[in-house]
Amino acid sequence: MPEITSVGSLESTPHAAVFDVDAPRTVRLQLEADERMPKHRHPKSNVVLYVLDGTLELALGDDSYDLESGDVVRFDGDQEISPHARTACAALLVFAPKTD
């Protein structure tokens, strides 16, 4: 039987676990306008980021990407990442374990 969750019902900020399992870890990121997450990495994961609402600047390695609602980005978590909300925004992130 599938596990169904409403993203809108998740209340923790800035991160809320969507499911109680770690593989793949799935979180909802919610940031207020101009809020920024410090640079960090997820070296053991491939990451998918889906912007649910708002606009987001994604610093990824040495590059920066402007994202808006509906955009999806997939990247290697070994790069430095720093999301910066241009407007209040919410995104869904999936951290898929790397398979070597």
Task: List the SSEs and their pairings.
Blueprint: E1 15-17, E2 25-31, E3 45-53, E4 55-60, E5 63-68, E6 72-76, E7 81-85, E8 89-97
Antiparallel strand pairs: 1-2, 2-8, 3-6, 3-8, 4-5, 4-7
Short characterization:
The protein is mainly beta.
Which labels suit this protein?
mainly beta; Jelly Rolls; 5-stranded antiparallel sheet; 3-stranded antiparallel sheet; 8 strands
Descriptive notes:
It comes from Haloarchaeobius amylolyticus. InterPro entries: Cupin_2 (IPR013096), RmlC-like_jellyroll (IPR014710), RmlC_Cupin_sf (IPR011051). The mean pLDDT is 86. The protein has strands at 15-17, 25-31, 45-53, 55-60, 63-68, 72-76, 81-85, 89-97. 17% of the residues are buried. The protein is mostly beta strands. The chain has no helices and eight strands.
